[in-house]
Design goal:
It is found in: Cell membrane. It contains 15 helices and no strands. By secondary structure, it is mainly alpha-helical. It has two domains: about 80 residues, no CATH class; about 240 residues, Orthogonal Bundle (MetI-like fold). It is globular and about 85 Å long.
């Protein structure tokens, strides 16, 4: 197992490098870089994308070289050259990429173009919101979905299975943002009750609360966002667990165990559970990473939470390249490591699995 883990860790390097190369290359062809953002603000346009609205001479032009930026016709070339030097665009793309990756090896992710804060400090500042959404949503989804899926598999075709399947399908069909708005309207002072707060992760008087008060205040604020981000994963995991158990229950070793006189509980949790849970565990990284990185931007916006989802979106809109590439590197590395952890969980659930023999 140690050799397998070592090989997987070594594969992280070329995989992460490939991710960075692809994204860095794509960014070179995207119009509206950070310099054009600054020029648009200086010219009073408010946003660089106003320059792409059409009209003669409004087509995007590449950064660097002797060609002028869109909207920069009235600005002195010396000013543009100074901006290029400040942002590092006076160097060729390959040199910029190699310098960036060299800095990343020393965990130097640079500083945001438009905020006076380093990328790592910015990520750490936003991390509590995303950890709260990702961790609690994933835990709740698994704690509910696995027992419910097992129960549905055992009572397959019963009235319990029918009405719970209907409820699950409805939950899956409801978009997360629509469910979030519904929660706000009903429980956050929209039109009915004001049970939960409307925004934020903590109250304004957080520092003055006792330890117990801080814990209660935290869960009070996070309840609605977590419910909104859990609904889709809950439906998917429940049906996945049910189908996995149904496939295992129909196999011969289950009939043999029952013929030996083992109780149903012993059959389900002593034999079937270990095999059926493999596919569910395999989906854990995707569920966690999806909630943690990708699915939180809408939830964060609706509940006025300042997390990594909004950070990534705002950085992409502002073309804040250090934030974009720094977070991409950090999150890509975390995602690859979580994949390795998923394999270790395979072995934990079923020690019979040996990845080294399978590779051989």
């Amino acid at each position: 197992m140690g050799a397998y883990i070592l090989r997987r860790l070594l594969l992280v390097i070329p995989t992460l490098l490939g991710i960075m190369i692809m994204n860095f290359t794509l960014v070179q062809f995207v119009p509206g870089g950070p310099i054009e953002q600054i020029i648009a603000q200086i010219e009073g346009q408010g946003d660089v994308f106003a320059g792409f609205a059409g009209g003669e001479g409004s087509s995007p032009e590449p950064q660097g070289g002797d060609e002028q930026y869109i909207g920069a016709r009235g600005l002195p070339p010396e000013f543009i050259a100074e901006l290029e030097k400040e942002f590092g665009f006076d160097k060729p793309p390959l040199e910029r990429f190699l310098g960036m990756m060299g800095n990343y090896l020393t965990l130097d992710f640079g500083q945001s173009y438009f905020r006076s804060i380093s990328v790592i400090d910015l990520v750490l500042e936003k991390m509590p919101v995303s950890i709260s959404l990702g961790l609690w949503s994933t835990l709740i989804a698994y704690l509910i979905s696995i027992p419910l899926g097992i129960r549905k598999a055992v009572r397959d075709g019963s009235s319990f299975d029918t009405w719970t399947s209907g409820a699950i399908i409805v939950a899956y069909a409801i978009p997360g943002f629509l469910f979030a708005i519904l929660l706000l309207v009903v429980f956050a002072g929209g039109s009915y009750w004001q049970i939960f707060p409307l925004r934020g992760l903590t109250s304004d008087n957080w520092d003055s609360l006792s330890l117990t008060g801080k814990v209660l205040d935290y869960f009070w604020h996070i309840t609605l966002p977590v419910l909104a981000s859990t609904i889709a994963a809950f439906a998917t995991l429940t049906l996945l667990t049910k189908n996995s158990f149904l496939d295992e229950i129909k196999k011969h070793y289950v009939m043999t165990a029952r013929a030996k006189g083992l109780s149903e509980h012993k059959v389900l949790y002593g034999h079937v559970f270990r095999n059926a849970m493999l596919i569910v565990i395999a989906g854990f990284p995707a569920v966690f990473i999806g909630v943690f990185f990708g699915g939180s931007i809408i939830i964060e916006t609706i509940f006025s939470l300042d997390g990594l989802g909004r950070l990534g979106f705002e950085a992409a809109v502002a073309r804040d390249y250090p934030v974009i590439f720094g977070t991409l590197f950090i999150f890509g590395l975390m995602g690859l490591v979580v994949g390795i952890i998923s394999d270790l969980m395979y072995v934990l659930v079923d020690p019979r699995i040996d990845f080294e023999k399978r590779e051989g």
